[in-house]
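Record now logged underneath.
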Amino acid sequence: MPHRKARKPRGSRGVTPCIKDGKRRPYHDLMVQLPRSSSSSEVKIQAQLIMKQLVERLASIGYTTIAFSHVVYGRPRPDDSVESILQLNIATTHKRGDLDESSIGAATGNHMSKGNTHSNIRIVRRLHAIVENSSDVGVYSNTNATENAATLSLLQEYDLVSLAPRNDVSFQLACSASEADIVTLDYTAGRGGVQIPFRIRPADVRAVVERGAAFELHYCPALLNVQQRKALVQTARLLQ
C-alpha cells in the first residue's frame, strides 16, 4: 500500500500573501473600526492593547495599509476630532487635503504613502458617517464653507471621509454634493436586511466617478449569510 502523507489540519498553513511579478501584492483594510471612547483609564489601556495586537496580526498576514475608522451618526461633533478619538499614539504626518483623491478608486495605496508606519503597516485615519438628513450631508461639502468652518477644520484632520446614506435623498446628495472620498453602500440597511435603502441611478454613479471618489461594499456580512451574499452581488451589479 502506498504511503500517504498526513494532511495538516485546516488553517495550519497560515496565510500566504499573493505574489505577482515577483512582488507581494498589497492588501488594504480601510474599515478597522475603533472601539468607543471611554473615560476609564483601564478600558483605554485595554483598547490600546487590542488595537496593537490587531495591527500586528494584520501585518503578519500581508496587509500593508489599514484605516482606523471612527463612526458617527449625522454630523461630527467637536469631540469627534482625531486627537479625542484615536486610542493609539499613532498619527500621520499629513492632512486630508494632501491626499491624491483621484487614486482612491484604484485603492493602490499610493495616496496613503505619507501615512505613519507601525509594525511594517501604514495607518491612516478615517471618519465614517451614517447620514439620513440632507442637512447632515451638507456639512460634508465645501458649499457652506463659512457656516461649516469648524466642521471642515475637523474633517481636515482625517485622511479619509466616507458617507453611508440611509435613504434616497441622502444618497443623491452624498454622490453629487458632498466632498466624501467614499460612498458606502450598505446592502444590509434596507428591507429585510438584504437590500440597499435607496435607488442607484446612472447619474449618481457618474457623479462619484467624475469627482474621483469611490463606492464601497463591505463583504463581511456576505461571508456569514447567503441572502446577504446575493445582496452584495446584486448591489455591485447596479454600479455597472
